[in-house]
Sequence to fold (403 residues):
Amino acid sequence: MAKKFGRVHLIVMDSAGIGEAPDADKFFNHDTPDTGANTIGHISEAVGLDVPNFQKIGLGNITSLKTVAKTAHPLGYTTKLQEVSNGKDTMTGHWEIMGLDIKNPFPVYPDGFPEALLEKIEAFSGRKIMREPNKPYSGTQVLDDFGERQLKTGELIIYTSADPVLQIAANEAVIPLTELYKICEYAREITNIGSEWMLGRIIARPYVGEHAGQFERTPNRRDYALAPFGATVLNHLDDAGFPVISVGKIHDIYEGQGINRDMGHNLNDMDGVDRMLKAMALPEFDKGLLFVNLVDFDAKYGHRRNPEGYRDAIQDLDGRLPEIMAAMKDDDLLIITADHGNDPTFVGTDHTREYIPMISFSKAFTTPKPLPVGHFADISATIAENFGVSAGEIGQSFLRDLI
Fold:
């Protein structure tokens, strides 16, 4: 009989892919296919990666990494997982991890949003929208290019990316957070399922500063996502009475569906780890799932093509792993994974279609070893089997291998 774990702690290192997927040639960064992308691999190769704790668990056993060695006796079971769904965005990756198969990709707007949509937002908000940034744009470059103008005029900065998102950047000194959130909530209402402009996420992007080169995003970002298209393993756990605790933007990604306690948004990834540790210490959390997203890998370093910053972020998490492992009960299971790639050495600024790592650890493990290559949803299938609830639409449990 497969071993049962009392609690599962699932960390998503947002965008930390580990090598091109077999269908990478069908996904693009602008005009360049994602062939050859390898987020963790290229970071290791280009700027070095010093992660002794990840190495002990078995990160280097998943694939060949220049500065992360294989270990003969890893502390954890490891493998890489392939995406089935038709997409490489945050929602598609997370929803598939929890058992959904997203066959139809979300629409994207490579030429910007339609005039009719912008006019509706203008009418609701009472603010004009700049037309020039209405296209796929770097979230930091758009501030340098239009932030000073927003300070003078109060106009909204609306832009998109290769993902199915509408982002509204607003200087907190000009557009108060309550107003920004209200505008985003309206934009969410008119881009929901059934709308001619259906979007995966509306993102509030508040920032501060007075001059180009000095603008800085604040931690007050909010994501307004579509609810998942079907029941996920989160729903099944919640329906069965298990605690389902979220940290970071997990609650936003699933629109709160199946989550019965939220530890709040992260100020940064290390704050996210702090929130995770607080959740692990809750007396009432004696069973169930703790689901954590660490977004800085993606938002601060992947999209900005900053391999040094990405490396430092991975190393920071590596330095916290002993803390996390010490806080685990003897029958806890830790799984660390990703939701897509975002190779900071690659062309463009978009996500990359990659395998994701699956790194697992438990104090109950005896002789861990690498597992066969699987699929994203195998994670939720494993969690579902462990807790005796229904699995999602797709996925094969690897619980019986964790002995």
Notes: The domain at 7-102+229-401 is CATH 3.40.720.10 (Alkaline Phosphatase, subunit A). The mean pLDDT is 96. The first strand starts at residue 7 and ends at 13. The radius of gyration is 21 Å.
